[in-house]
């Protein structure tokens, strides 16, 4: 099937992946109204979407998915025909410090959206309705040195973050099984690229290297992640949204595994070249620090289902994507300075508090 929705709600669209998804949908589907609902936490930043200001098919709504009555009223008023749900607390280290924030947004917030979609769609059956939940490969837990996560791998989350995402996935499937809500889920590996908040490994390392600060590597740097360029994830979301079979789950990954320490050495080389420093300068900043609690050893995705069924594949080699990412962060140092200053939070709080 090829869905042709008229009114999509995208949650978390001011964040890293959400901003790429919103941009893609607003630009590729001009006859579709795209609503971006975001609380603008520390991770949400409207300057990620400056280029969409004034577009007639785009609207930003500031709001919290934890606020059930606000969400119900919004669905009642706008009558969205579909939802792409990305809003979440997304950083594992923060989940270790404050697990309840993750339960509230990732679990309660998701259930609030499911309830609102169910109420809004129950009296109006349409094959355009879809609740698309964007999730993570971390729900599957950790792999040893071999093997890949498939769509049928049993859930085994280890961090409060992954436990909250696993819980939200279960609720989404339960609403499909119990109430017949039309849902799809995708579970993706580590994303990288422009507009990622510099608490995550790659932008944190770029920011620290630029300022000659230590680059913290947890443990021995032997943990493995499968990296995917964020624009390729947005393309996969677009395909799944328009063509996926209701009730299905798709794994998305780059088939691109890197040990953290090897990735950081590659990044250091690129930084030296782009900053015109002598090769070896940035690598001196690598500092091994205490390991993350419950640190998963290895994630790796079998993405053959989406490749075969929807003909998706990543467009970029990792070296190209990393080079482009470094260039973007160095050319957009204002963005990096702004999101690390804390000022923008205050600015947006003032700007939107009376809306
Ligand atoms: P992010 O932290 O950059 O962005 C999250 C966005 O959600 C922010 O704009 C934030 O303001 C918003 N938000 C948070 N709490 C909210 C609330 N209560 N109400 C409304 N908005 C709220 O996250 P990201 O890295 O872009 O991840 C987006 C989604 O993709 C998440 O669901 C995450 O679990 C999933 N995911 C991320 C990755 C990755 O590598 N980053 C990989 C796989 C899946
Ligand atoms: O796998 C998908 C997940 O990828 C997403 O669901 C999460 O939202 C996203 O944050 C990411 O989780 P990770 O924990 O894998 O990403 P992070 O960038 O925090 O860490 C990547 C690896 O680097 C991990 O093994 C921990 C390590 N690390 C991280 C930081 C921030 C360090 O060694 N030093 C650091 O300072």
Explain the layout of strands and helices.
Layout: E1 7-11, H1 16-28, E2 33-38, E3 58-62, H2 68-78, E4 82-85, H3 92-97, H4 99-121, E5 130-136, H5 160-179, E6 183-188, E7 190-192, H6 201-210, E8 215-218, E9 224-229, H7 230-243, E10 249-252, E11 257-259, H8 260-274, E12 286-289, H9 304-310, H10 318-331, H11 333-341, H12 343-352
Parallel strand pairs: 1-2, 1-4, 2-3, 4-5, 5-6, 6-10, 7-9, 8-12
Antiparallel strand pairs: 9-11
The structure holds nicotinamide-adenine-dinucleotide (NAD) and 2'deoxy-thymidine-5'-diphospho-alpha-D-glucose.
The site of nicotinamide-adenine-dinucleotide has 30 residues, from α1, α4, β5 and β7.
Which key phrases capture this entry?
355 residues; alpha/beta; Rossmann fold; three-stranded mixed beta sheet; 12 helices; 43% helix; 16% strand; globular; binds nicotinamide-adenine-dinucleotide; binds 2'deoxy-thymidine-5'-diphospho-alpha-D-glucose
Task: Report the total helices.
Answer: 12
Helix and strand sequence: EHEEHEHHEHEEHEEHEEHEHHHH
CATH class of one domain, named Alpha Beta
Order of the strands making up the biggest sheet: 3-2-1-4-5-6-10
CATH topology annotation of one domain: Rossmann fold
Which percent range describes the beta-strand content? 15-25%
Mean pLDDT rating: 95
Estimate the helix proportion, in percent: 40-55%
3D architecture notes:
- The chain has a domain at 7-193 and 228-255 and 295-315: 3-Layer(aba) Sandwich (Rossmann fold), CATH 3.40.50.720.
- 43% of the residues lie in helices and 16% in strands.
- The chain has twelve helices and twelve strands.
- The chain has helices at residues 16-28, 68-78, 92-97, 99-121, 160-179, 201-210, 230-243, 260-274, 304-310, 318-331, 333-341, 343-352; strands spanning 7-11, 33-38, 58-62, 82-85, 130-136, 183-188, 190-192, 215-218, 224-229, 249-252, 257-259, 286-289.
- α2 packs parallel to α4 (99-121), α4 runs parallel beside α5 and α6 runs parallel beside α8.
- The radius of gyration is 20 Å and the shape is globular.
- The chain binds nicotinamide-adenine-dinucleotide and 2'deoxy-thymidine-5'-diphospho-alpha-D-glucose.
């Amino acid at each position: 099937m090829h869905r042709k929705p008229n009114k999509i709600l995208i949650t978390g669209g001011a964040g890293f992946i959400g901003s790429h998804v919103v941009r893609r949908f607003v630009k590729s589907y001009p006859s579709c109204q795209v609503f971006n609902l975001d609380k603008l936490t520390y991770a949400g930043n409207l300057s990620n979407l400056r280029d969409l200001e004034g577009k007639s098919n785009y609207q930003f709504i500031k709001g919290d998915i934890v606020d059930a009555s606000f969400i119900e009223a919004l669905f009642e008023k706008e009558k969205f025909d579909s939802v792409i749900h990305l809003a979440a607390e997304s950083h594992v280290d923060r989940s270790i410090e404050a697990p309840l924030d993750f339960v509230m947004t990732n679990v309660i917030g998701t259930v609030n959206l499911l309830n609102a979609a169910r109420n809004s769609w129950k009296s109006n059956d349409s094959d355009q309705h879809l609740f698309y939940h964007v999730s993570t490969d971390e729900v599957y837990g950790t792999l040893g040195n071999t093997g890949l996560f498939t769509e049928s791998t049993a859930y085994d989350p280890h961090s409060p973050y992954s436990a909250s995402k696993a819980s939200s996935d279960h609720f989404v499937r339960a609403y499909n099984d119990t109430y017949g809500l039309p849902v799809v889920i995708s579970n993706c590996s580590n994303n990288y690229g422009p507009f990622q908040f510099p608490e995550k490994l790659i932008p944190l390392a770029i920011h620290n290297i630029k300022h000659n600060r230590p680059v913290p590597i947890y443990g021995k740097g032997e943990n493995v992640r499968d990296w995917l360029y964020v624009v390729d994830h947005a393309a996969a979301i677009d395909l799944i949204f328009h063509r996926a079979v209701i009730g299905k789950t798709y794994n998305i990954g780059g088939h691109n595994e890197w040990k953290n320490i090897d990735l950081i050495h590659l990044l250091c080389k690129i930084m030296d070249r782009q900053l015109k420093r002598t090769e070896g300068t940035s690598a001196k900043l690598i500092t091994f620090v205490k390991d993350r609690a419950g640190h998963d050893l290895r994630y790796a995705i079998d993405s053959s289902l989406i490749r075969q069924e929807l003909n998706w594949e990543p467009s970029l080699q990792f070296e190209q994507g990393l080079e482009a990412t470094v260039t973007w962060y160095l050319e957009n140092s204002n963005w990096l300075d702004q999101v690390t200053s804390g000022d923008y939070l205050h600015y947006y709080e003032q700007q939107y508090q009376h809306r």
